[in-house]
Prior knowledge:
Structural class: alpha/beta
Oligomer: single chain
Bound molecules: zinc ion
Radius of gyration: 19 Å
Amino acid sequence: MPGSPFLRRSEVHENPPYSTLSELILILLGAPGAAQGTQAERMRDDFDLAYIATGDILRKAVSEGTELGQKAKEYMDNGDLVPDEVIIGVILECVESESAQDGFLLDGFPRSVGQAEALEEAIGRLDRTLMAVLYIEAPDEEIIRRLSGRRTCVKAGHVYNMYTDPPKRDEVCDQDGSRLMQRDDDREATVSKRLGVYHKQTEPLVEYYEERGLLRRFDGTRSPTEVHDHIRASIATLRLEDEL
Ligand SMILES: [Zn+2]
């Protein structure tokens, strides 16, 4: 729902006269299987954003053996969760890099209100501000259908969904003809467990960002193209509001 660009007219005088085009600092929040990766990829193309997928970045820091990566590895080797300050350190390294000068899109972090607060503080110290949290919503039965319908090819890991994106031939990869299998992660029991974790972690975050007026909701039951169009329209509105 595009808001009126005039909503913030009363605030115009509060903006410094030298304010330039606001940078896009965004968080992507969504149900497991809500195709966040697809949306992130499209947004990266649209807005030339640095995409910070926390899991990937942490793994990269570990494999490159950076100082923070080594710290993270210690925890992981012991089977412990990597503490927030270490993850935030890794994220900040990305945030301060050249590619993130005009903004960035964060995916996979924060996962709790504590992490959200720590992140806000860390970004604030850099004199930067979170613009919006893009929340892709989907009802439980839709999430279960998407996750349990997922099949991966044994050869190259190409991903299909028996309901939303089926292969041309049943259980065979379109791209390399190899067999499709269901990962343990995607089995019904695991899926309901993931769903439980998602609700426990995400709902407080949704409330947290809603209270701050940062949350933007998107209907994850729509097609990826529709969701993408809505996200684009919403970001365009946010930018307009900021320029006034
Ligand atoms: Zn394949």
